[in-house]
């Protein structure tokens, strides 16, 4: 069972069902769950005069070392292949800097790796085996096997229970372990499914004894397990605020999954002007703001912290009203509705562009003048297919045309990789019950 908690530190509190306590002298340390030793460790650091960032890192490190609840640190919750990986985040509420790692393998110090990302890169998140390589290159110990006898036993029992429950959907087989294929394409060949770490996908430079051998147990139960995180907030003596999180992520997650733990604003957020929290709440349009005002509000909040920042946003509500806002440059976004003969490109040169209302559906909106991508999405949506289908086809067109996609921007090693997301706003958040 996973309980979603909110940590909130601010000057005034709104009463909640639980008792609210009056403000306390500084410093302050708050953590999810009764992770007493972690709070003690953070307290020792912050009362000694160190920063809020130092304190949250020390507190979360203690939880990793103690394997809090069996869901944090090395030896904790295994993934679908039986391997334990780490997600962690640290955020500095004074500078608004963020560092995080996700699905990190072979390195025991999740929160310390996140701090290295924050302090020594211009990025906020590094994932997977590349996060491991980065952490080791910056001085953390590794590679190390993060599994424990307890985590492997948990995985073996789960396998013996036909890998139930799991996080797969719309695949076959439904009631047993993989390999999996699409449910509407049972003939999909096995080579189309991802190989497990046991099949030799580790980096060639990793020692052989670090290769995770999943094949030694063919089948495994399900026991009560958790999908929890330590989320810690600290206000130091100077009033500086920081947050940190560390977790193994969801037990029996699909390998490579990035959860909410390492995402700023999803798992935790800190701002010296307001406080710190373990999650974000409903935002402007949910509160009734029109897109024009909501977009301008979102941009202005960032601009208050970063007067020189360059960025933009567009917003679209359920009634088809759309608007854009930008800061530091001129922004364009593309729209197609039934009242338009073709794609229209809107230019925003001030904090918020003019809001426009569409009387008919469907509607397609895209950043930048990616006209062909919008045309593709429009043809799909206008033919009666779903918004998801249209969004996927539109973005696929952009990938093929190399607006983005293969052949695009290389990384530090010269390799082009891809990031992508799709969200179904009709279904909203699907809640699932996983053993609890």
Brief description of this entry?
The active site is at 229 (nucleophile). This protein has 436 residues and is of the alpha+beta class.
Written description of the protein model:
The N and C termini lie close together (4 Å). The protein has eight helices and 16 strands. A hairpin with a 5-residue loop joins β8 (230-235) and β9. Among the domains are: 8-146 and 224-277, no CATH class; 291-400, no CATH class. Mean pLDDT is 79; it is low at 1-23, 186-227 and 428-436. α1 packs antiparallel against α2 and α2 (52-66) runs antiparallel to α3. The strands form five sheets. The chain has a six-stranded mixed sheet. The protein has a three-stranded antiparallel sheet with strand order 1-11-10, with no helix packed on it. It has a three-stranded antiparallel sheet with strand order 15-14-16, with helices on one face. The protein is an alpha+beta fold and 436 residues long.
């Amino acid at each position: 069972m996973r309980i979603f908690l909110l940590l909130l530190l601010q000057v005034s509190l709104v009463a909640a069902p639980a008792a609210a306590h009056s403000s306390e002298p500084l410093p302050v340390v708050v953590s999810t769950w009764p992770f007493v030793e972690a709070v003690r460790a953070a307290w020792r650091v912050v009362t000694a005069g160190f920063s809020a960032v130092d304190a949250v890192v020390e507190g979360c490190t203690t939880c990793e070392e103690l394997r809090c609840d069996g869901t944090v640190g090395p030896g904790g919750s295994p993934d679908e292949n039986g391997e334990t990986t780490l997600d962690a985040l640290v955020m500095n509420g004074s500078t608004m800097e963020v560092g995080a790692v996700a699905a990190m393998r072979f390195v025991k110090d999740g929160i310390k790796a996140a701090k290295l990302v924050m302090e020594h890169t211009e990025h906020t998140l590094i994932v997977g085996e590349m996060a491991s390589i980065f952490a080791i290159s910056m001085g953390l110990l590794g590679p190390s096997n993060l599994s424990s006898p307890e985590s492997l036993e948990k995985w073996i029992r789960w396998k013996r229970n036909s890998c139930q429950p799991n996080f797969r959907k719309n695949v076959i087989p439904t009631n047993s372990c993989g390999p999996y294929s699409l449910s509407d394409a049972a003939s999909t060949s096995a080579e189309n499914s991802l190989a497990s770490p046991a099949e030799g996908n580790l980096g060639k430079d990793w020692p052989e004894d670090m290769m995770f051998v999943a094949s030694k147990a063919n089948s495994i139960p399900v026991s009560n397990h958790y999908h929890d995180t330590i989320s810690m907030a600290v206000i130091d003596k100077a009033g500086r605020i920081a947050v940190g999180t560390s977790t193994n992520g969801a037990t029996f997650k699909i390998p490579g999954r990035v959860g909410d733990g390492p995402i700023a604003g999803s798992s935790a957020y800190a701002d010296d002007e307001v406080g710190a929290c373990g999650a974000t709440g409903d935002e402007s349009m949910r509160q009734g703001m029109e897109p024009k005002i909501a977009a301008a509000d979102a941009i202005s909040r960032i601009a208050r912290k970063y007067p020189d920042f360059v960025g933009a946003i567009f917003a679209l509500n359920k009634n088809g009203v759309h608007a854009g806002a930008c800061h530091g440059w001129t922004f364009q976004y593309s729209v197609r509705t039934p009242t338009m003969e073709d794609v229209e490109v809107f230019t925003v040169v001030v904090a918020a562009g003019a809001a426009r209302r569409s009387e008919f559906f469907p509607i397609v909106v895209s950043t930048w003048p990616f006209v062909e991508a919008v045309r593709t999405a429009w043809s799909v949506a206008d033919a009666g297919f779903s918004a998801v289908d249209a969004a996927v086809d539109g973005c696929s067109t952009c990938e093929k045309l190399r607006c983005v996609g293969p052949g695009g921007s290389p990384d530090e090693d010269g390799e082009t990789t891809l990031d992508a997301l799709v969200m179904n706003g009709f279904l909203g958040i699907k809640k699932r019950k996983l053993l609890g």
